[in-house]
Amino acid sequence: MHLHILGICGTFMGSLALLARDLGHRVSGSDANVYPPMSTQLEAQGIQLLEGYDPAHMDPAPDLVIIGNAMSRGNPAVEYVLDKGIPYTSGPQWLAEHVLQDRWVMAVAGTHGKTTTSSLLAWILEDAGMAPGFLIGGVPQNFGISARLGDTPFFVVEADEYDSAFFDKRSKFVHYRPRTAILNNLEFDHADIFPDLAAIERQFHHLVRTVPSSGLIIYPQQEQALQRVIDMGCWTPCQTTGEGGNWQARLLAEDGSRFEVWLDGQLQGVAQWSQTGAHSVSNALTALAAARHVGVTPQQGIAALAGFASPKRRMEKLMDINDIALYDDFAHHPTAIATTLAGLRASIGDKRLIAIIEPRSNTMRLGSHMAALAPSVAKASEVIWYQPPGLDWSLDTVIADSPVPARVATDIDGIVEQVAGAAEPGTRIVIMSNGGFGGIHQKLKQALEARHG
């Protein structure tokens, strides 16, 4: 069967393409913007990528079109599909019907940490010899690929609360019917489709309603929004993490790189790994709890942490030259920015930390998080905020309220020139964006190598 995917370079849709190909389908796809890491991965896997949404991409007509949630009415490819009567579906529905049916689905939901926690859970299962399938909204470095079918009933899926398609406004995760559900955290996000936090809580409760009574729901004890979700009605056993929860961590290193794992008051072991930050420790606890639900002992899981490598674009170190380190991070929400910078700061001590941030997400563009942005960078030494074209509000207020030196830039090459020139041994630089950011990652890497190599 020939499947054509509209919006194929999105992290979810690109992963879906890999699964469809592994099921034996011929897969092609188109997208407005083709950029790494998904474009690189798809091309390496032999999947045809077409730039733009020209209806000619679907002539002759494919057997089925999978329409990404970034597509809307008025898009020429969408209009062509509707006019020609070509069969179509959403990505989550296709996944549920063709991959997840009859699997033990382990879903990782939450505002933050979905990609890392999904990668971590898949790795713990892999290390235990359980060969899981997975679909992750990024490229986990332990696997080098964002999705695979797997050889056992277990399937780990990153469960996004964003809507499924222009014709299906339910959250993606409602399709997945997990037996093991991780609810990592819950804050207001996606202001383009949700009016308030209560609307997102309602979608999370739809997810809770789908978990069987023989399943397990895992969530942080102190997360009030998630507690409200559970209080709406829950028919499934729950385990909690964090302070006051069933699963707790006691830090043995301030940066979170070494910690004890406790379950119901009993010490399970000591974890030592390459990740840093309190948020990373929280991710580890939920992944350990989920893995235990399918038979991985806490001791096995703790041992696996030592071999875990973070997914690409999640504090991924791009280079380290003459004691100047450059990182790439996907953070696109004030809480994610704050926790990521806090983790790095705990790891590097008082070294100079330059953050370069592009407020690119739909919620950022609408200005919904504007008030929280300035305090989110408190752990940086200095910040450069990139004002992308189409940002509907000014960053001047963020600069004025910044707790550290900050400035706005509109020229990527100018940012590269300034940062490369100002960097010196001991400097740590982190680029934060959920998009390609005009190729700044490679530009800055090359400029630093040229100046300091």
Give the terminus-to-terminus CA distance. Answer: 50 Å
Number of strands: 23
Strand order of the largest sheet: 8-7-9-6-12-13-14
Number of helices: 15
Largest sheet: 7 strands, mixed
Multimeric status of the protein: single chain
What is CATH's topology name of the largest domain?
Answer: UDP-N-acetylmuramoyl-L-alanine:D-glutamate ligase
Poorly predicted regions are none
Quote the average pLDDT. 91
Number of domains: 3
Radius of gyration: 22 Å
Q: Give the name of the CATH superfamily of the largest domain.
A: Mur-like, catalytic domain
Helix fraction, binned, reads 25-40%
CATH architecture of the largest domain: 3-Layer(aba) Sandwich
Q: What is the global morphology?
A: globular
Structural class of the helix and strand makeup? alpha/beta
Family: Belongs to the MurCDEF family. Mpl subfamily.
GO molecular function: ligase activity
Domain Mur ligase C-terminal: 313-435
Cofactor: Mg(2+)
Write the layout of secondary structure elements.
Layout: E1 2-6, H1 11-22, E2 26-31, H2 38-44, E3 48-51, E4 64-67, H3 76-84, E5 88-90, H4 91-100, E6 104-109, H5 114-127, E7 133-135, E8 147-148, E9 154-158, E10 163-165, E11 168-171, E12 180-183, H6 197-209, E13 216-220, H7 224-231, E14 238-241, E15 247-251, E16 258-263, E17 266-272, H8 278-293, H9 298-305, E18 316-321, E19 324-329, H10 334-348, E20 353-357, H11 362-365, H12 370-376, E21 382-386, H13 396-400, E22 406-409, H14 412-422, E23 428-432, H15 440-452
Parallel strand pairs: 1-2, 1-4, 2-3, 4-5, 6-9, 6-12, 7-9, 12-13, 13-14, 19-23, 20-21, 20-23, 21-22
Antiparallel strand pairs: 7-8, 10-11, 15-16, 16-17, 18-19
Helix pairs in contact: 1-2, 5-8, 5-9, 6-7, 8-9, 10-12, 14-15
